[in-house]
Amino acid sequence: MYSDKVMDHFMNPRNVGEIENPDGVGEVGNAKCGDIMKIYIKVENNRIVDVKFKTFGCGSAIASSSMATELIKGKTLEEAWELTNVAVAEALDGLPPAKMHCSVLAEQAIHKAINDYRIKNGLEPWEDRFTD
Ligand code: FES
Ligand code: FES
User: Hey, whose CA ends up nearest to atom 2 of ligand 2?
Assistant: First the structure.
């Protein structure tokens, strides 16, 4: 049911934890299942130099957070914003259909963290393609 990559990122998640004095934080809850994901980012020169997450949720949500943080580390805010939940799921070699919403949490949490950073720096927040 789950790919080796999903199992790997679930059993050995990357970038777990919190960042002290983060430049942006994004927290989202999933209405479907009640799971919660929080993403912290450190930004220098418009680039995500560090990222950590805390996820209270299912294995797919943990694997999605782990993969998504790996994918945005070192990227510009614009590049990180473009990361879709489908791209996260593809990087994990797929998620079962009933678990696709878990990857949506990762995209939304990253967007919230980026917008938190933008608002704190007096910039307009970007528009998320999902509404919550
Ligand atoms: Fe999220 Fe079961 S629905 S852990
Ligand atoms: Fe809800 Fe995975 S079952 S985030």
Answer: 102
